[in-house]
Amino acid sequence: MKIVEVEAAEAETVRIVMQQAFAEYDKDVIPSGAMQETTESIQASIADGEETAAVCYLENRPVGVVRVREEEDALYFFRLSVPPEERGSGIGSALIRWVESKALQLEKETVYCKVRAAAPHNVRRYERLGYHIYDTFTVDRLEWPAFDVIAMKKKIPVEQSTHE
């Protein structure tokens, strides 16, 4: 298993793996916005420095992705994506460890994500990895019924020596 931070030119790989993983939510009353994202939008976001993305490879095959936005004192990860046939082999956990390592490298004190309340299995997964709920809110858009979101975070112990 190898995790690589990718360049904008690899946005197609990010989109394909992400949409394979999120396809199961496409039939939901409130489908995931991941299915509407395009290679071009992901490519532009990476090229503009709005986000970074990492791809997990297993035997040179992309099997997972995560996207990250850097904030003042935190790293926000989103669209953690592992296609159903690849789940259960530690890919998601490895990608989260990559995000946490990136946070340490950037001297960020917190890593956080947002999870749909309708996906309690994801909330439990992040809790097992040391994340805790710090906020809940409702997303209300005209085109869909309102839905609840759970925000979860984890404090990252930034080494004292990096501040000396």
UniProtKB/TrEMBL annotation:
It comes from the Bacteria. InterPro entries: Acyl_CoA_acyltransferase (IPR016181), Bact_Acetyltransf (IPR050832), GNAT_dom (IPR000182). Coiled coil: none annotated. The keyword Cell membrane does not apply. Keywords: Acyltransferase, Transferase. PROSITE patterns: GNAT. Its EC number is 2.3.-.-. Residues 1-157 form the N-acetyltransferase domain. The keyword NAD does not apply. One of its GO terms (molecular function) is acyltransferase activity. This is GNAT family N-acetyltransferase.
